[in-house]
């Protein structure tokens, strides 16, 4: 009898940050991995995420701890090469609308109570802690969180895929909407619409907002609260902004190439979803978001949209991550969360560990899909 253990074969459905991160961590642990994407890599939510690395505000203790661990992994990556323009830690700043001073103060007090680095600032204090912001756009007060950062997820995916290929991972692009194969009640592979069959010992479904639909035929219900959202990238503009801005009318983060990424939610009613699954929005609404962002910046630079992407933002129905093995379908795991950017590295690490060892990590205890059964 051979003493050499067989290599675990894992099929990963989804070419976003959660799928790619888990695939790379699995390869590091010695697994054989095949990664299948419906279209291209980072073609869905990963390609249109504000990707603000944070655990600001109030959430469950377990979720906060997981996000803090997520930020830690990014800091470890950042330390290996701080010059990467696609991963930076310049802090985050937020403020509420006029008349909500007490709301901002309550958030600051809560963040301090859980040990989250939080500074309550008057408008005139902002320039001393972070550059490029028009203090006149802040109505009353603001919170600055020095430990926060941002990542350009498409660049991170490209970075991780270099390791994926160097470790022998297999990639199937444009596979269409893949489905999980079940044999005797257990996941045993993946099938594509074209009839491709990919056998595996374990399957991970990490398809963003489509994850609940992929596992529904397996008799698994995961509530889906995913809204439609948009990310706008501007044309290059001279600006000194380092922090991620979250304000009543625009969210802004720096982006490689001296551009800015813009996001919010007030424009959702202007988005039209078409029968073929595509989305559209009037260009004047996109420019309005750019104009709102311009008002936040010192010297009010003219911001011009260069491109924008629209689609569903992955959010589970109860707002908490859904990570782990399906109780009804052994061998099938899911990764579905709103905080895909912040959790991208840590979720991939912990999932890979569970898949390879069979041991459930305690940090994922409250996030298992079985809570919806």
From TrEMBL:
<dbReference type="InterPro" id="IPR036188">
    <property type="entry name" value="FAD/NAD-bd_sf"/>
</dbReference>
<keyword id="KW-0560">Oxidoreductase</keyword>
<dbReference type="GO" id="GO:0016491">
    <property type="term" value="F:oxidoreductase activity"/>
</dbReference>
<dbReference type="GO" id="GO:0005737">
    <property type="term" value="C:cytoplasm"/>
</dbReference>
<dbReference type="InterPro" id="IPR006076">
    <property type="entry name" value="FAD-dep_OxRdtase"/>
</dbReference>
<dbReference type="Pfam" id="PF01266">
    <property type="entry name" value="DAO"/>
</dbReference>
<protein>
    <submittedName>
        <fullName>FAD-binding oxidoreductase</fullName>
    </submittedName>
</protein>
<feature type="domain" description="FAD dependent oxidoreductase">
    <location>
        <begin position="9"/>
        <end position="352"/>
    </location>
</feature>
